[in-house]
What we know:
Blueprint lengths: L3 E3 L33 E3 H7 L3 E8 L2 E7 L8 E6 L2 E5 L7 H9 L5 E3 L9 H8 L3 E4 L13 E4 L3 E5 L2 E5 L8 E5 L8 E3 L5 E2 L6 E2 L1 E3 L4 E2 L2 H11 L6 E3 L5 E2 L3 H16 L7
Parallel strand pairs: 6-7, 7-8, 8-9, 13-18
Antiparallel strand pairs: 1-2, 3-4, 4-5, 5-6, 10-11, 11-12, 12-13, 14-15, 16-17, 18-19
Helix pairs in contact: 4-5
Amino acid sequence: MKRSICITCGTQYSLMENEPESCPICSEERQYVNPEGQEWTTLEKMQKGEQFQNQVIEEEQGLYSITTSPSFAIGQTAYIVQQGNFNLLWDCISYLDSQTINQIIKLGGIDAIALSHPHYYSSQVEWAEAFNVPIYIHEDDRQWVMRESEHIRFWRGEELALASGLTIYRLGGHFQGGAVLHNETGNEGKGLLLTGDIIQVVADQEWVSFMYSYPNLIPLPAFKVREMADKIKPLTFNRIYNAFHKIVENGADRAVQHSADRYIQALEGQLFHT
């Protein structure tokens, strides 16, 4: 019996005798199956191979990034967000070992895990069991949980306050339950938004974008982008961190609104003629 991990997306599955026939997360439009075919590993194999290690870096006061080197699967970044006496792990990565656990304990541990969307569920249950904490996932994305656990708490509605000044907002878009995290007092009181890739910081890091599928370049409709931008318009945040270490350094709340306007103009044929 083993808990297989999809090498392409990094999702860990429930205990099974054999590897799954396919990965449902990779087999639909928002992801992809490796052209060389479906491949699997396990966390135990990753640990025994001694190839991987996690890097925990302080990004700014109260915010630490966690990445795996060399990059594994999608290669996303997870974050520890410190708010008062509450430490949240935002999004998750597949690799976990005792060294990582000890590093995080030195930072005060974690009190909860929250996810932006299913592509980053990865080994979330391993992390929850290691720290004995709840995992918060929006009810709309329940079907994408490949390893069930008593640690998982499905939440409903449009927002969930986890601690004073620390709130998850459901925006939808990339996934129906797609969510972002607002830290009201982050960035020295100017506000932080952690977006996974529900809102994606692009190459020109003064702008963001919105997609249904990033690897397959399927856009979201204009009405959905407007809805997403409108939902966070009341929030104040100076900076955005996405899931791939790209940052809108300043004026991020305005950048989202300007980017939404540009995106919609492009879809409606008003931005350019070609």
